[in-house]
Amino acid sequence: MQLPEAFTQQMKELIGTEDFLRLSASLESDAAVAFRPNGRKGFCAVGDLQPVPWSSLGYYLSERLPFTFDPLLHAGAYYVQEPSSMFIEQAVRQCEPVAMRVLDLCAAPGGKSTLLRSLLPDESVLVVNEPVRQRAQVLMENMTKWGHPSVVVTNASPAAFASLEGFFNLMLIDAPCSGEGMFRKDNPALSEWSVQNVEHCAARQFQIVSDAWPALAEGGYLIYSTCTYNLRENELQVQRICSELGASCMEIPTDPAWGIVGSLLQGENLPVCRFMPHKLRGEGLFVALLRKERSVRAPKQRGGGQRVLPLDRQLRPWLQNADGWGQISIGETLYALPPALAEVVSLFLPLLAVLSAGVALAQRKGGAYQPEHGLSQSLAFRRDHFPTVNLTYEDAIAYLRRQSLSLGNDVPRGMVVVMYGGVSLGFVNQLGDRANNLYPQPWKIRSQNAAPEVFSIVNRDAEWA
Predict the structure, then answer these.
(1) Which CATH code fits 386-457?
(2) What is the per-residue pLDDT for 454?
(3) Superfamily of 5-292 according to CATH
(4) For 246, which DSSP code?
């Protein structure tokens, strides 16, 4: 791998020539592969796998598998995530273990967002945002598959959150960066790197934090992370946030055996965490936990926007324990909101471009309700309200390719849930001798490669079967 000369010099000055040579050599090896089972859907890891040491949820794999052809991945049974990124768990655990209002500001594709949702108390509200529209659609897909109902997906600029003064008590900003820690995985990051780009990224990062800072409550926490090595985007950025915005840097306890290093800024003892690929199994990562010290004005109580209505009685049987749930419409889709979300979602609607909120429940079709795909993926879905059919592996792949299915004449006509491995894949409309495939067109498997033999890295717990 040919590293830029300026980057090479920068790293030698930062970590020394000997350490840099080890880092450079590590980038020639394959990246580590890891995943997290979705325990909320009843899945656990299969086999004698090595846990990711800084994660209570993640496991390493010995090789990258053809995940695209595993129906359980599409059903939200697990998430494939870079192992260093799972360290966010340790920062979250330093925050008060109460129901929280959490914002993941630069969230696509959703790895850290799904991890956050797995770690937070059920009553917490998680808002996941992505400013780039196309990436926001990918984020919405992954959050829908993960299945937790107390999630709002938005497509807004960081500045759009400033009006929600003091609303969030935890904020994650995985800031866009120069990507030095991803050189092994991402060739564009290598080819696009320059000293000027580092400066551009640092300025952009501070602007992002500054724009969203009013939305963080006094005493609230900011997890700031990048996947880069230089001081400008990391330690110096943290110092600037502390001095100009009013924050203190908090310690994140670590085990020396994990191989994580601390600050590389000489003469300063910032309690930050750095992941270096030659010292552990993971990509480059920087994480700091900051606490907001300066107060803000009282949160604004905004009126207007769409009112949250009680959930339609016809739709309550589609959900488990729907007491206290509300509903709103976004476009043509009706969304069901659990109580914690119903209390606050009307605040977002006049301020942000909300793509989804709660459970995508139904659309009106010819005077009747037709269930949405998001319902089939939700933890709140009452599956026994609809007929179900278990698919073979071959039929499951055909369904995910949005090909036609024939379920047999003994399957009742109307909406049917198709299942694989104990989990719902989605809906079909059974017409008798054939079934209309209702899997979302943008999410279908597009690869024309032949599906491999069945493999499994997760199992469904017996109590969920």
Answers:
(1) 3.10.450.720
(2) 85
(3) Vaccinia Virus protein VP39 (3.40.50.150)
(4) I
Q: Which residues of the chain have pLDDT under 70?
A: 186, 295-305, 462-465
Would residue 64 be called left, alpha or beta, if left means φ above 0 and alpha means ψ between -120 and 50 degrees?
Answer: beta
Same fold? 5-292, 386-457: no
SS3 category, 120: coil
Beta strands per DSSP E along 213-351: 216-226, 247-250, 273-275, 285-292, 309-310, 326-330, 333-337
**Cβ–Cβ contacts within 10 Å for residue 354, how many?**
22
Could you give the 3-state DSSP secondary structure of residue 191? helix
Contact 218, 295 (CB under 8 A): yes
Question: Which burial class, exposed, middle or buried, applies to 204 when counting CB atoms under 10 A from its CB (0-12, 13-18, 19+)?
Answer: middle
Distance CA 126, CA 35 (A): 21
Write out the H or E segment, with its range, that includes residue 400: helix 393-400
Residues annotated as catalytic (active site), given as ranges: 227
Report the distance separating Cα 160 and Cα 301, nearest Å: 16
- Rounded distance between C-alpha atoms, residue 290 and residue 303, angstroms: 32
